[in-house]
Amino acid sequence: MIYSIIGNYSLILGLICGLILFYLSFKNFKNSNLLDSKILSFTFLQFFFVVISFLCLVFSFIISDFSNETVFNNSHTTKPLFYKISGTWGNHEGSLLLWLLVLTLFILVFLLRTKNQQIKYQILTLVFQQVIIIGFFVFLIKTSNPFNYLFPPPEEGLGLNPILQDPALAIHPPILYLGYVGSSIIFSSVLAATCLNMITPSWASHIKYWILISWIFLTLGILLGSIWAYYELGWGGFWFWDPVENVSLMPWLALTTLLHCILVLERKSILTSWVIILSISTFTLSMCGTFLVRSGILNSVHTFANDPERGLFILIFLFALIFLSLFIFFFFHKDERNNPQSFFWLSKESSILINNWFMMYFLSVILIGTVYPIFLDVISSEKISVGPPFYHKLIIPFLVPFLIMMAIGPKLKWIKSQLEDKIYLISILFISLLLAFLVLKNFDENILINTILISSALYLLLITLRDFFTQKYKNISQNIAHFGFSLLILSILFNNLFSSEIITNLKVGETFESSKTKIVFESISQKKEKNYNSIVANFRIQNANGQNDKLSPELRIYNQPVIATSEADIKTTIMSDKFIVINLVQNQDFFNVRYQVKPFMLWIWLSVILISIGGLISFLQRKI
Amino acid sequence: MYGKKVKLRLLFIALILITLVLTTFLILKSLEENIVYFKSPTEIKLLEELDNNKIRVGGMVKENSIIVNSKEVSFIITDFKNEINVVYSGSVPNLFTEGKGVVAEGFLKDRNFFSATKIMAKHDENYMPPEVKEALGEK
Fold first, then answer.
1. What are the strands, taking DSSP E only, across B3-136?
2. Which residues contact A368 (CB under 8 A, 6 or more apart)?
3. Which of A95, A491, B59, B96 has the most beta carbons within 10 angstroms of its beta carbon?
4. B99 and B31: one domain?
């Protein structure tokens, strides 16, 4: 009770701080030789109030204070402490409070860490960031206050959706939000820089680190979500082209494009409009993501019950922000026309630009695939969904030139370049074609397409691999990231090509036999935990070589709320994963069994980690 | 005559336009081929002709309708006005139970018979797919 009151008032105080900051900024802006120390203290105060209010919510969850509506809806006394805490952001209200926390944290760090930039620029960034922060404060307090009372306080809460009670998903939202919300600072700063006409190389090298932070967290956040989907949803896949997944991939694509553009801007004063547009769209896409996930508009397998009225507020707010940024872009941005620098076709910047186009293409494919069903529903009330074949068909063919450009681009020099070591580049191309063909020659389906795809990924892999030895520490971050990407594509391709799956319904004691695999359903046992009961099924799986594996998937029945979930049992080895999941069909003796052998699963995760390590190294290199 | 610079710029703009047109064409073309329509059992009854496209059917799993054997699961989807028989071999989601909402993706054999290739899972037991809610709206 007391925590809810404190939390609630801290929120209001935080909002007031925001308004005071507005006033202080305008005062300071006119007379801007020095950053007003009051600005810094109020920014800190605002952050402090949000932290207090966030901690209050966390405490309410820990002590299971059911007089708080959010706690009542999402918690239960029998839940383990870890999930009580993670329940704080596992719901709409709490996750928005987390948004706000990250928003205020970023602007505080921004003000503290930014040196060597104009004071006016810092103040303007603060103003734009405050526009976003105040918007979220109002949204939170008005439509989704996490501190609503319930009287009389209920004895017991409704519990957290069991599917969210999982370590990967417990830390997924904070990490993803650091990436999502991190793009807000890029948005604010690009608007400020546009107003002051200072989109210059020095600004680029300053904002680059903020882009990197956001990018690293977004990459890791998507990875965590994907790992969770893999073992928790029981489909054995890691990416379903589901709208909710797509909305996290779209900002990532925009951010990756921006990261590359900033590198060009750092060297040459070109592509300024492009950088501005990309920064604006990254944040807009992140906001859209929140809107689409939270409004319930999307028809997604990941959708949770939610309230459409909240969506309307975010939508209006989103349009206001887009309008504001477009206004600033058109009125303040002066083109680089007085500074003519044309492209030479063979140079690093033109290869980056070409790959930018590809990424924008991927982005628009995903955007259309995600938004089109909503659009059609509104205009014709026809219900449709767009499946994976759509994305595969449109994206996969274009990966080939994309990968090859990724391999050759970094070999080129800035401004004007000659293609050096032509023989070496071409011979590696032939080697990778040959290797890909050898791997696939026993494979009859679509051999041409697959050979080309795999060889282009191999090409990138081999070239980046060689650079580790020849170039040593030069460009190591870029090399690691590109290497990781080629590994990712390769693992995904092999994973798709060589996965096998058996789905069958078995009773206890029965055996399924196919030419290569024997699945013996040996026994079931029961297990009782504090917050769930589970049935553990014991399987013995024999493969063609007579090798035996014991796997024990679980079927959990949570007591609050009463929901059954399947816990897959996965045996991970370096080369492949063995994945088994069971389900009980109602009122029947049969268990629905799904057994999959998925090669290179581990490599998919590792390669994404490599990609983000690339980003991390680039971030750390600043200090050297 | 135009200068070299203008020519280059024109070429550049033309290139952008061509890519844009191509992109739009490609996307729209494959959208057309790959969209999956959602129908309720009643809408299926009213279909004029059956085609071989993949569709989704949504409604409630009828009480006492689930039958399992070692190869497949069969059940009936109802919207309380009409029903359709579904045969499915594959893995079923956790929240697949009688009396709960379900969405099945697959192909129509005829107006009463649907062969599913996928059954959608829900994350939340209070959640009902918007389509199902709408299809059941008049109940």
1. 35-39, 55-61, 67-68, 73-78, 83-88, 101-110, 113-119
2. B27, B31
3. B59
4. no
- Looking at the fold, whether B26 and B41 belong to one and the same domain comes out as no
Give a yes or no: residue A352 inside a domain. no
Range of B73's domain?
37-135
B35 to A361: CB separation less than 8 angstroms, yes or no: no
Q: Which amino acid, one-letter code, is at A280?
A: I
pLDDT in tens, A453-478: 999 999 999 999 888 888 766 788 99
A577 occurs within a structural domain: yes
Range A284-313 burial, b when 16+ CB lie within 10 A, else e: bbbbbbbbbbbbbbbbbbbbbebeeebbeb
Q: Which of residues 386-405 of A touch B (CB under 8 A)?
A: 386-387, 389-390, 393-394
C-beta atoms of A586 and B98 within 8 A: yes
CA distance A310 to A343: 47
Are B92 and B25 in the same domain? no
Q: Assess whether B48 and B79 both reside in one domain.
A: yes
Dump pLDDT digits (tens) for A557-605.
Answer: 887 777 778 888 999 988 889 999 888 776 677 888 889 899 999 999 9
* Pair A3, A60: CB distance under 8 Å: yes
**Taking Cα atoms as reference points, which of A260, A238, A129, A135 lies closest to residue A192?**
A129
Contacts of A373 in chain B (CB under 8 A): 35
- Residue A40 contacts B where some CB pair is shorter than 8 Å: no
> What SS3 class is residue A547?
coil
C-beta separation of A526 from A539 below 8 A:
no
Asked if A337 reaches chain B (Cβ–Cβ under 8 Å), the answer is: no
Please tell me what DSSP assigns to residue A473. T
Each residue's pLDDT tens digit, A357-389: 899 999 999 998 888 888 887 787 777 888 888
Position A305 scores a pLDDT of: 47
Out of A215-219, A599-603, B44-48, least confident range: B44-48
Same-domain check for residues B22 and B55: no
Nearest to A481 by CA among A306, A348, A609, A308: A609
Query: CATH number, domain at B74?
Result: 2.40.50.140
Q: Which domain holds residue A47?
A: 1-165
Confirm whether the ipTM is greater than 0.90: no
Mutate to test the interface with B, among A390, A558, A581 (most CBs of B within 10 A): A390
